[in-house]
């Protein structure tokens, strides 16, 4: 029988039906694509706003430095711990003796120097969802420090006809790394690799990704090149998940691993130059980028983007002394101090931050990267200028998630390469890597780890995709600003009707949340609209609320703590110098006071103290701050599961 | 009378903002132009379902006299606003879509096999490209039976959108 048309139906009905389906499908798929792109930009806006928040903490540190002598005795000890996290690193031998390996450990037992078999052992082990023993992690880290110390600030590669593969951000996505090694081969003398930073944070296998890269490097340090990214920074790890992962997986050994890791980060080279033609750095450049200066600096002194450089501190001290009428530190003395100190000068520090944090943009010129709070936006004219100044032809960088895993801009002079697929959530983006073949143009290879959803039966699919969607994440943001938003809405609502026009609603959302998003398109997902097209602005808050860990406390206090929980988590982690996870009630309240006074956050200190005391369930005067902060989360009405 | 005019102006203003938002998603260089190949996607993302033929005509309307491969927002906006005001190219209701599948499934099994769907979509009507076909299959196909249970598929697409 004819497959297309049944004998009882005319030919036209068949073709007509097909066109109906095709039209519908194309409409559906376009809407999906537009939604995915929008979702990406929403996630990205939120991510950058968070980064900006994080970097603003560096002004908190400067503030504390400035007011060091004003703060009373109890606080100054706190401030001391905030600022001087350099604990003395224990000798390697002593440390290794302390970590015994039990009989039951079935994983790889590494012997140095490492060989290709070790790469294989480690990969096999990780594929079984196992972790590398703390003993070997520590040994790998010590060896890394030893080897990296010999490297110059910029890796210099001569291709000599060999292929070079460049990978971008991996962010703890182990499956992506496996995929790349599977498709592209493991590193060897004929298969060179450059990993362009951001190996860790956000993904759940940051440690395994890092160990795989480090083991590969230690096996063939001339064929694997690692560039530092902005997440190879122990302060960033505190906020973005790697510190937590280490403490969870390695428990009592976690603290020492973190300290050693901090040092290893500072020894990572800040970039790679291929054949004196191609510059590979994690973020980008600025109009003042001076590769000659960058090759001379002591990169080891760059501990974290959050530790302000010396000159800012000297200026702070100077202004303090001026206030009290004593003689000021002269600028010349400041500079002299700078060069002999443990830190980079302000100019050097800014040069490194630009390399690690900048983003290319279409607009000409160089201006501060206000979204992220660090580095610059640089235009095609800056690229042309800097590349020609240093006789280079191409800049390859990473740092930004792209839907296709890569992007080319600035007339082909800047390439972005991003290797973490599904970075924000399932299906958010592809990952990619570049293979530079000798004598031809670079080739891009894309990939995306399989959507788990596709393997589920149809009825289960839609429910799965709702959680952690961009709307979900936005709603959590919205509820955390409920007080400010309500205030803004009510200011506009002259008739006290509970309703605003769509335009007014969009304006309030943008100004309070500080996120430039397509509010009108998002509106149906976030709020109810009546038949006249007016927005019932309070309906945003209807199906979400913040869980109250203790009933007697005001909602506004809960909201404030929820809103700032990431910053607080970060600050607590810093003062918790022995990484026990516990801080005293006094320390909590002092930290909160410093934080809220600096940021001008209105807070009822008495209520907060009471809340904290109530959450000290075993009444021993200390609280587990991770447990404490986890107790504040957003409950979505239609979701019965607690967040991860 | 004046009220009606005000209301229409307000509606048009809102449409303008919506169209701008949809356009900006694809304006990668932030210079108020998009690649002509994305126009179909933008129009469809605004809720329209033109056929490929209708799209072809629309593109001719919004292109510059000397086609550059890019469409400028200034030309796109008035045309798209008219389309939205006149509610042109509305998507067919769900039951019409279901009926279309049923016409193809003459044996009334409740599903189409993978081979059947491929044949229909890539050889008839306004044929799918290979990429479009693969995309549709990846979401529509039931991996166990290698067939498309179209009723469930439609339900899923509808829920997904809302």
From TrEMBL, chain A:
What keywords does the record list, in alphabetical order? Answer: Calcium, Hydrolase, Magnesium, Manganese, Metal-binding, Protein phosphatase, Repeat
Q: Where is this region: Disordered?
A: 315-345
Q: Sorted alphabetically, which SUPFAM superfamilies does this protein's record hold?
A: EF-hand, Metallo-dependent phosphatases
Q: Where is the composition biased (Basic and acidic residues)?
A: 315-324
Question: Which cofactor is essential here?
Answer: Mg(2+); Mn(2+)
User: What is the gene called?
Assistant: PPEF1
Q: List the InterPro entries hit by this protein, alphabetically.
A: Calcineurin-like_PHP, EF-hand-dom_pair, EF_Hand_1_Ca_BS, EF_hand_dom, Metallo-depent_PP-like, PPP_dom, PPP_phosphatase, Ser/Thr-Pase_EF-hand_contain
Q: Which residue intervals define the domain EF-hand in the entry?
A: 563-598, 603-638
Look up keyword Cell inner membrane and say if it applies.
Answer: no
Q: Where is the composition biased (Polar residues)?
A: 325-342
Q: Which reaction does it catalyse?
A: O-phospho-L-seryl-[protein] + H2O = L-seryl-[protein] + phosphate; O-phospho-L-threonyl-[protein] + H2O = L-threonyl-[protein] + phosphate
The enzyme's E.C. designation: 3.1.3.16
Superkingdom as given in the UniProt entry: Eukaryota
* Source species of the chain: Propithecus coquereli
Any one GO BP annotation for this protein:
detection of stimulus involved in sensory perception
GO molecular function terms noted in the UniProt entry: calcium ion binding; iron ion binding; manganese ion binding; protein serine/threonine phosphatase activity
A Pfam family this chain is assigned to:
Metallophos
Query: Could you say which protein family the record assigns here?
Result: Belongs to the PPP phosphatase family.
Top EC class, one word: hydrolase
Instruction: Write the protein's name.
Output: Serine/threonine-protein phosphatase with EF-hands
From TrEMBL, chain B:
Query: Which keywords has UniProt assigned to this entry?
Result: Calcium, Metal-binding, Repeat
Location of the EF-hand domain:
14-49, 92-127
Q: Which InterPro entries match?
A: EF-hand-dom_pair (IPR011992), EF_Hand_1_Ca_BS (IPR018247), EF_hand_dom (IPR002048)
GO MF terms, alphabetically ordered: calcium ion binding
Q: Gene3D superfamilies, alphabetically?
A: EF-hand (1.10.238.10)
**Annotated PANTHER family:** DYNEIN REGULATORY COMPLEX PROTEIN 8 (PTHR46763:SF1)
Q: What is this protein called?
A: EF-hand calcium binding domain 2
What is the species of this protein?
A: Propithecus coquereli (Coquerel's sifaka)
Q: In the record, what lineage is assigned to the organism producing the protein?
A: Eukaryota, Metazoa, Chordata, Craniata, Vertebrata
Its gene is EFCAB2
């Amino acid at each position: 029988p004819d497959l297309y048309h049944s004998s009882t139906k005319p030919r036209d009905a068949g073709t007509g039906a097909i066109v109906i389906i095709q039209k519908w499908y194309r409409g559906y798929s376009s809407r999906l694509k537009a939604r995915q792109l929008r979702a990406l930009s929403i996630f990205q806006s939120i991510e950058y706003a968070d980064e900006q928040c994080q970097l603003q903490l560096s002004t908190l540190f400067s503030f504390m430095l400035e007011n060091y002598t004003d703060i009373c005795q109890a606080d100054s000890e706190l401030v001391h711990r905030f600022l001087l996290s350099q604990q003395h690193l224990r000798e390697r031998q002593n440390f290794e003796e302390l970590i015994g390996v039990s009989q039951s450990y079935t994983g790889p037992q590494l012997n140095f120097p490492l060989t290709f078999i070790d790469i294989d052992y480690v990969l096999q082990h990780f594929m079984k969802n196992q972790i590398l023993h703390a003993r070997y992690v520590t040994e790998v880290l010590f060896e890394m420090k030893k080897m990296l110390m010999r490297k110059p600030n910029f890796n210099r590669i001569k291709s000599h006809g060999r292929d070079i593969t460049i990978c971008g951000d991996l962010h703890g996505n182990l499956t992506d790394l496996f995929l790349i090694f599977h498709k592209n081969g493991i590193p060897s003398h004929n298969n060179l690799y450059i990993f362009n930073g951001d190996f860790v944070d956000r993904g759940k296998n940051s440690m395994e990704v890092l160990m795989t890269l480090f083991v590969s490097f230690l096996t063939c340090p001339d064929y694997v090149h690692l560039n530092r990214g902005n997440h190879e920074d122990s302060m960033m790890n505190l906020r973005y998940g790697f510190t937590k992962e280490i403490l969870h997986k390695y428990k009592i050994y976690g603290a020492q691993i973190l300290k050693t890791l901090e040092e290893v980060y500072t020894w990572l080279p800040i970039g790679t130059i291929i054949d004196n033609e191609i510059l590979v750095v994690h973020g980008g450049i600025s109009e003042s980028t001076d590769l000659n200066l960058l090759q001379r600096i002591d990169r080891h002194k760059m501990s974290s983007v959050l530790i302000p450089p010396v000159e800012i501190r000297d200026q702070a001290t100077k202004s303090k002394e001026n206030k009290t009428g004593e003689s000021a530190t002269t600028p010349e003395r400041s500079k002299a101090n700078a060069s002999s100190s443990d830190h980079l000068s302000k100019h050097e520090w800014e040069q490194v931050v630009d390399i690690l944090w900048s983003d290319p943009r279409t607009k000409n010129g160089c201006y501060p990267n206000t979204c992220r709070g660090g580095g610059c936006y640089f235009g095609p004219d800056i690229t042309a200028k800097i590349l020609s100044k240093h006789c280079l032809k191409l800049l390859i960088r990473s740092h930004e998630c792209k839907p296709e895993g890569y992007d080319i801009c600035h007339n082909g002079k800047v390439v972005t390469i991003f290797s973490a697929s599904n970075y924000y959530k399932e299906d958010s983006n592809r990952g990619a890597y570049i293979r530079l073949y000798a004598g031809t143009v670079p080739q891009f290879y894309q990939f995306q780890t399989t959507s788990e959803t596709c393997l589920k039966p149809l009825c289960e699919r839609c429910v799965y995709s709702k959680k952690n969607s961009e709307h979900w994440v936005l709603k959590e943001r919205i509820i955390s600003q409920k007080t400010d938003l309500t205030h803004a809405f009510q200011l506009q609502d002259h008739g006290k009707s509970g309703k605003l026009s769509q335009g007014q609603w969009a304006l309030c959302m943008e100004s309070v949340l500080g996120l430039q998003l397509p509010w009108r398109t998002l509106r149906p997902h976030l709020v109810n609209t009546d038949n006249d097209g007016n927005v019932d602005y309070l309906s945003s808050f209807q199906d979400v609320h913040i869980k109250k860990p203790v009933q007697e406390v005001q909602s506004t206090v809960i909201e404030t703590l929820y809103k700032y929980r990431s910053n607080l988590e970060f600050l607590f982690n810093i003062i918790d110098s022995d990484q026990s996870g516990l801080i005293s009630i006094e320390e909590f309240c002092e930290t909160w006071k410093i934080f809220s006074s600096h940021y001008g956050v209105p807070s009822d200190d008495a209520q907060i103290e009471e809340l904290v005391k109530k959450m000290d369930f075993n009444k021993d005067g200390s609280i587990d701050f991770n447990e404490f902060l986890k107790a504040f989360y957003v409950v979505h009405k239609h979701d019965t599961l607690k967040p991860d | 009378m004046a009220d009606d005019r005000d209301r229409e102006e307000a509606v048009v203003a809102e449409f303008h903002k919506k169209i701008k938002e949809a356009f900006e998603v694809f304006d990668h260089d932030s210079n108020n132009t998009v690649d002509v190949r994305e126009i179909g996607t933008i129009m469809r993302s605004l809720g329209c379902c033109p056929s490929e033929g209708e799209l072809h005509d629309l593109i001719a309307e919004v292109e510059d006299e000397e086609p550059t491969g890019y469409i400028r927002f200034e030309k796109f906006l008035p045309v798209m606003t008219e389309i939205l005001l006149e509610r042109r190219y509305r998507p067919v209701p769900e039951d019409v879509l279901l009926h279309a599948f049923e016409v193809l499934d003459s044996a009334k099994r409740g599903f189409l096999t993978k081979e059947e769907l491929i044949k229909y979509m890539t050889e008839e009507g306004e044929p799918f490209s290979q990429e479009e076909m693969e995309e549709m299959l990846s979401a529509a196909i039931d991996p166990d039976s290698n067939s498309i249970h179209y009723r469930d598929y439609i339900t899923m697409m509808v829920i997904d959108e809302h």
